[in-house]
Structures are given as structure tokens and as C-alpha cells.
Amino acid sequence: MKIVCILKIVIILNKISYGRLFKECTLAIYEGLYNNFSELNNSENYYRFIGVYKDLLQDHEWKIVGNRPFKNDEEAWAPPSVVVDAITKKGSLYYKGQITPCTYDECKDLEVVAAWDRHHVVDMLMGDTKWDDSIRKPIDK
Q: How many structural domains compose the chain?
């Protein structure tokens, strides 16, 4: 699967979400729910960037419905996210495969690095926060 792919994620009967694949199995979920792909237009407004298990991208349950090439290699990287140390609870920036120290203010509002399964993604898109609530956020020390 190429990183230019747009994937169709069926949420409920007639409501669909779409995700654009970025590097490192990161799926950028487009804002909103849709009835069909034509409603998405050329939007590049994303609800969130989430890491997903690679097998979700290979089992063909989420169908490829389009391709949107990136202007350059740099654009194919998702924005920075935060890795939270299990012992200290301190956050570090994760960007382009690198982990670097940061301040609490630099990482407190970032997406926490995680790999999500299909049911996690669908629950999140339906507004259920239990999975987000289950992962540690960085704390200010």
C-alpha cells in the first residue's frame, strides 16, 4: 500500500470516514463523516493523526478509494506526536522516527504515540473516548 492512498472506513450503516495514509503507518483521519467519496472534495482538514497496525492496511477491509500524492517527501510525514515515559510520565517529541527531549508545554496537546486496531479507530470516530482515556498523557514535572 502506498502512502498516497485514501482509505474508506465504514463507521455505521451509511456513514463513512476517510483516512489518508502517511509514513510510518500513520492514518490522517479527515474531519467529518460522509455518505460517499465525492463529498470529501479536496479537503486536507484532518480530525487527527493516528498510528495503526500494519495489518489493517493490508487486509483490504478498508478499501482504497483514491490517491492524493504529496507535494514532496517532507509533506508525507505526520506532525510531531508525544512518547510518554512509563516511569517518569514525562513526554518526549516523536517526529520522523526520532525521539527528542521537550518541555511539557511543547508536548501536552500532542497525539500520544500508539498503534491502534480497527475497533479502536471506529470507536474513536463514533465519539467514544475510552481508548484515549486508557493511555497515559505527559505530566508536568
A: 1
